[in-house]
Specification:
elongated
């Protein structure tokens, strides 16, 4: 029995399929890092304890809420380029540069983990810029610029918590 699969529609947006594929692959890595960061931040929000509880609990909530919205923007850009967005833990684990944190670290360790993950996500986004620039892909460049700005600002705020 034949599957009901719609024929693939051609995409003619001024970016070749080869370039779109490279960009989608890079965005998939960014999506994986972003999801891993989201999950780490939400986990730390649930499990933070100690004298900084209230401020960190609130800050982590703001961060994971922003991150959740970003996941959709990145995934939808991958789809607009004509490729499926990764969406399983198995795919994210394979694609992410950020490793999961085991157990429940102390509050200051959480800050260090989140700082490293924010910086890693910024690096992942920045690494894709040459491919995006070469393809003249302004919408993806806009997504990357916004994400780098958020991750660098959040890293600065986290760094400020641990600097004497």
């Amino acid at each position: 029995m034949a599957k009901n699969v719609a024929p693939k529609m051609p995409i003619d947006i001024g970016i070749s399929e080869r370039e779109r594929k490279k960009i989608a692959e890079g965005l998939s890595g960014l999506l994986a890092d972003s999801y891993t960061l989201y999950l780490m931040t939400h986990n730390f929000h649930w499990n933070v304890t100690g004298p900084q509880f209230n401020s960190l609990h609130t800050m982590f909530m703001a961060q994971y809420t922003e991150q959740w919205t970003a996941l959709d923007l990145i995934a939808e850009r991958i789809r607009a380029l004509g490729f499926p967005a990764p969406g399983t833990y198995k795919e994210f684990t394979k694609l992410a540069s950020i490793k999961e944190v085991e157990g429940v670290p102390k509050a200051n360790e959480m800050i260090h983990h989140l700082l490293a993950a924010q910086e890693a996500t910024a690096r992942t986004a920045r690494k894709l810029f040459p491919v995006v620039d070469a393809a003249n892909d302004q919408p993806t460049a806009d997504v990357l610029t916004q994400r780098i700005d958020v991750h660098e600002k959040t890293a600065w705020m986290l760094r400020s918590l641990i600097t004497e």
